Amino acid sequence: MKGTTPHRQLASDNYAGICPEAWASLAEANTGHAPGYGDDRWTAEASDLIRATLGTDCEVFFVFNGTAANSLALAALCQSYHSILCHETAHVETDECGAPEFFSNGTKVLTVAGLGGKIDPASLDPMVLRRQDIHYPKPRALSITEPTELGTVYTLAELRALRDRARALGLKIHMDGTRFGNAVAALGCTPRELVDAAGVDVLCFGGTKAGMAVGDAVVFFDRALAGEFEYRCKQAGQLASKMRFLAAPWVGMLRDGAWLRHARHANEMARLLERSLRQIPGVRILQNVEANSVFVALPPGAADALRAQGWRFYDFIAGGGSRLMCAWDVTPEDVAAFAAALAAV
Question: Fewer CB within 10 A of the end CB, N or C, for the chain?
Fold first, then answer.
């Protein structure tokens, strides 16, 4: 049948289904009637669970996807004459179709360099200080992707260095946490330790790639920045009328730590995949494997041969080679099947 695949894929964690914990909460919420637009018990409980998970009081909003989360969060930090600094491979620059600029009514995204997808703190000063006249978009926010688009993870020390430099330059800090759980699992720290190290003002906490059907959370640690954010959500078509179905999966994911268990497992599968691929002649690992993705250079013709067998994965210009992504439900058997197929071709 068109559109189906013969096995679990390594193309993206978007390919995976809904994890059991999120599914159970969704089914539980699907009984009877409940108030709309977030005035239901599920939205209240999910918000409280996010506060408990992050270990701090904060404002929580639920939106449909990561593009909306990142773009609306950055728009809340900036005026149209401001600019946002991010790594040159960051999703907000390369894969949001200009949404941060659109929703902020023109805020300019400026890119900075750094090895392995990580921003070099020394690259911030030239961008902020090179011009301070009225003709230049005034730098206002720093956007950090954790894990990065290349699958690497900032250490807590690296985040503190970025935070200190950003604060010295007067920048607000946004974190694209589409795979926030994978970063927490990789670092072996608490969620609070991660956001404190980075000095995050607003976090986009990913739910979709963690194992939910749809939905990300925008979390403001600086409550003053959240003023009228609900109006941004409504205007952008992100206010769910049946909000309980965006919120309920968070309850299942967070109340017993399923989000972090699944993230640890996905990371472990990526490390297993890396070890398996290193045994195959002609295969080269391109980036440090620190979260749930493996960037790899395949021998000539191998990618086409694998795709002809039904395997799906993306070629990444930014990271070079092909990206293999382990979702929450990938198993050792899936990894072995891919490695065997690659070795055979």
Answer: N
Nearest of 45, 130, 46 to residue 83 by alpha carbon: 130
Domain 258-344 CATH superfamily: Aspartate Aminotransferase, domain 1 (3.90.1150.10)
Going by CATH, does the domain composed of 20-254 fall within 3.40.640.10? yes
Output the six-digit token pair for 64. 């449909």
Domain with CATH 3.40.640.10 in the chain: 20-254
Distance of CA 342 to the CA centre of its chain: 28
Alpha helices, H only, 280-331: 302-308
Phi, psi (5° rounding) for residue 109?
-90, 125
CA 94 to each of CA 45, 66, 298, 311, 321: distance values in angstroms, whole numbers, following the listed order: 35, 14, 24, 25, 17
Q: Do 66 and 236 touch, CB atoms closer than 8 A?
A: no
Tokens 């999910």: give the residue.
Answer: 46
Domain with CATH 3.90.1150.10 in the chain: 258-344
Instruction: Tell me the C-alpha to C-alpha distance, in Å, between residue 57 and each of 51, 60, 229.
Output: 6, 10, 17
SS3 content of the chain, % helix, strand, coil (to 5): 45, 15, 40
What's the whole-model pTM score? 0.95
